[in-house]
Amino acid sequence: MINEAAARQYWPNEDAMGKRVRLDDGGTAWRQVIGVVGDVRQDGLAKARRVPRSMSRCRQSPVPFMVLACGLG
Question: Which residues, in sequence order, are CB contacts of 22 under 8 Å at separation 6+?
Answer without folding.
Answer: 28, 29, 30, 31
